[in-house]
Amino acid sequence: MTHPTPEEEDNLFRLLRQVDIAPAASQRAMAAATGVSLGRLNALLKSAIARGFIQISDRDSTDRRQRFAYTLTLKGASEKARLTDRFLARKFAEYDALHAELTGSTSGFVPMNNRTNLMNNLSPIPELYVSYDSAQKLKVEAADLVSHDLTPRQICDLELLMNGGFNPLKGFLSEADYDGVVDNMRLADGTLWPMPITLDVSEGFAESLEIGQDIALRDQEGVILATMTVTDRWTPNKAREAEKVFGADDSAHPAVNYLHNQAGKIYLGGPVTGIQQPVHYDFKSRRDTPNELRAYFRKMGWRKVVAFQTRNPLHRAHQELTFRAAREAQANLLIHPVVGLTKPGDVDHFTRVRCYEAVLDQYPQATTSMSLLNLAMRMAGPREAVWHGLIRKNHGCTHFIVGRDHAGPGANSAGEDFYGPYDAQELFRTHQEEMGIEMVDFKHMVYVQERAQYEPNDEIADRDNVTILNISGTELRRRLAEGLEIPEWFSFPEVVTELRRTRPPRAKQGFTVFFTGFSGSGKSTIANALMVKLMEQGGRPVTLLDGDIVRKNLSSELGFSKEHRDLNIRRIGYVASEITKNGGIAICAPIAPYATTRRAVREDVEAFGAFVEVHVATSIEECERRDRKGLYKLAREGKIKEFTGISDPYDVPENPELSVETENVDVDNCAHQVLLKLESMGLIKG
User: Fold this and answer.
1) Among 147, 118, 148, 138, residue whose Cα is nearest residue 75
2) Where in this chain does the record put each ATP-sulfurylase PUA-like domain (predicted)?
C-alpha cells in the first residue's frame, strides 16, 4: 500500500474543506478554491467518492453546467478533521524552518505534541462540528445508524468535545490514550491531559458493534447530536482507574461510586463528528462556547482574563478572593460556574445562577463577565484542577484561580479528606508553564471583625489579638435548615433570600423515610403506623410506598433478578424524590438489599430534602419464624431463587439514621422511635 504524498494530502484536505463549507458551489468555483485545474479536480472527486469521503447526487438546478451536488459523508467528515491537524502541523513546521533560516533560531511556535499550545487566548480554536448544510444531510444519514442514548454526564462530555472545550481531543479516548491518561496524565502522543473522557456502554451494546462502525449519539429525547467512528473497544480496570485518577478505590468518592455502580462495563473510543449542540432552555444568554468567549474577549480588548471556577453560591469571601485575584494578575475577571453534574447534595444550578445574577452588580461591569460551563465534574482534586485549567485555557482565559481543596469531594471512608488542602495548587504549579495558563493561588479566606474585612487565614500575623469569624459550608446548611440568622458579613442578603426560597427550614421541607430490612421484619407494619401518626400531626401530605404496593402498581412487569430488584428500588426512589421535591413526606418500605442502590436513592432524594434511612434490624431467624406467607420455606426448598437472606445477600446498612429492633417491642413503640428521630433532625415540630 502506497502512502499519499504531502501534496496529495493537502489537495484532499482542501477539497473536503471546500465541499463542507460550500456544497452548492460550481465545479469551476470548487477548482479555484482548491487551487487545482478542472481536470485535476475531477480526478480528486472520483478518488474521494471511491474512498467514501464524498457523496454525489443529482442537483435540482436549471443550470445544465451544474448537474451534480457533492456532500461530505460521515467518513469524509472524520477524514477532514484528521487532515486538518496534519495540514496545520506541516505549515507550522515550514514556518519554523523558514524562521530558523532567516534568524538562526527556532520560532518557538511549533508545539512538541499538538498545535493548541501555539494559540493565544483570542484566536479561534478547532471545533468538531461540520457546516450547517453538511449537518442537515448527516442527520438523515445518521438516522439509519445504530444509536447510543447518552447519559447526562456523557452529554456534558460530548458538548465540550464538539465545541473545543476539551481541545485537543477529537473524540472519546482510544485505549492507548486512556492508558496514558490514567497512568501519567498524558495522551499517547505525550500531550498533557489528566482526565479520562470515555464513552462507557453496556456489554450487550458493545458486543453488537464492529470496530470501524459509525454510531449515532443521541440525547435523552432521541435527538442526534453527533456521530462517532468506533476505533477502540475494551474492558477497563476500574479499580486501577480509581486508584490512579482519584487517589483511592473508595466508593465514598462520588466519582468512584459512579465508576463502579453506574458507568457501563465497556469503554468505546473514537473520533466524533458534531452535528448539533445539546439544547439548553435555561439561561441561554449566559451560555457561551469557547470561541464565543474568545470573540467576546477580542471585542472587549481583554488580553488578560482570570477565571473563577465555582459550584457553590457566591458569598462575600468569594467576592474578596476574586477581587484580589484580578488585582494580582492585573486581569479582567470571568466568573465561570459549573452548571453540569457536580457533587450529590450540592445546591441545584438554577438556584446558584440566580444567586450569581443577584450579586453581579457588586462587580465592576466593565471588567467582569459571567458565563456558564456545562461540565460534568469528577471531584478529582489535583487532577481536576489541571483539567479545569486546560478547559479555561480553551475558553480564552490566561489565568485561573485555584483555591483551598479545589474540587475536593470531602471525607473518605476513614473520615479523612481525600486530598490535602493545597495538593491541587502544587500539581497545577508543576504543569502551568506547559499548560499555557497561569495559576492565581489563594488560601482560605476568613473575616477579621476588628478590621471588617476578609483576609487569608494563614497570613493574619496578629491572630491572637483579633476576632476571626468564619462559617463553614456545613454550618451554613445547618442555619438554613433551622431558619437561623446568616450574618451580612458572611453573605449578601440577595443570596440568602434565594437560598431560603430553595431550602426553607427543615420543618417546612419535604423528606423521605426509607425503611429497609428482611422480608417479614416488620417494615410495612411500622411504616403504616408512622404514616398514621404523621397524618395525625398534619401540615404535609404523606405517601406510603410499600414494597408490595409498588410491585402491584409501578413494577408489575418486573421479576426478582438483581437487575429487576434494583430497577424497582430506583423507581421507588424516583417517586420519593418527586414527593420530597414538592414538599411532601414519602415513606418507603421495600427490602432494598443492596447498599449501592440505597445510596443511589439517597442521592436522588437529598437533591431536594432529607433522606432518613431506618434499618429494621430483625434477625433472619425471627423473620423466618414470623413467615406467614411461607416464603422462607419455599426459599429453603429451592423453589424461590435469589431470596434475600437465604440465597441472595443483604447488605446491612453501615450508618443508618436509625436502627430499630422489633423483637419483643410493639409496633407503636417502633413508630414512636422514628418520630423522635424526625423531631431531633428538625423535620417535624416537637
Assistant:
1) 138
2) 126-276
**What pLDDT does residue 295 have?**
93
CA distance 153 to 344: 13
Pairing of strands 232-234, 171-172: unpaired
Q: Is 104 exposed, middle or buried (0-12, 13-18, 19+ CB in 10 A)?
A: exposed
Q: Identify any residues that bridge with 400 across adjacent strands, giving them in sequence order.
A: 307, 439
Burial of 167 (0-12, 13-18, 19+ CB in 10 A): buried
H, E, C per residue of 630-649: CHHHHHHCCCCCCCECCCEC
519 is known to lie in a ligand binding site: yes
Asked if residue 522 belongs to a known ligand binding site, the reply is yes
pLDDT band at 110 (very low <50, low <70, confident <90, very high): very low
Average pLDDT, stretch 461-487? 88
Inter-helix orientation angle 27-34/6-21, to 10°: 130
**Mean pLDDT over all residues of the chain?**
88
Please choose, from the candidates 607, 605, 571, 598, the residue with its C-alpha nearest in 3D space to the C-alpha of residue 655. 598
Map residue 514 onto helix, strand or coil: strand
Residues with a catalytic annotation lie at: 310-312
pLDDT digits (tens, 9 = 90+) for 191-219: 999 999 999 999 999 999 999 999 999 99
Is residue 112 very low, low, confident or very high in pLDDT (cuts 50, 70, 90)?
Answer: very low
Residues 1-34 have pLDDT tens digits of 456 787 888 888 888 888 888 877 888 888 888 8
C-alpha angle 285-290-292 in degrees, rounded to nearest 5:
50
Q: Model confidence over 43-73: pLDDT tens digits? A: 888 888 888 888 887 655 555 555 567 888 8
3-state SS, 67-92, equals CEEEEECHHHHHHHHHHHHHHHHHHH
What's the CA angle centered on 254, arms 250 and 256, to 5 degrees?
45
Cell, residue 322: 476574586
Q: Is 524 annotated as a binding residue?
A: yes
- Which amino acid is located at 255 in the chain? A
288 within 8 A of 296, measured Cβ to Cβ: yes
- Categorise residue 318: left if φ over 0, alpha if ψ from -120 to 50, beta otherwise: alpha
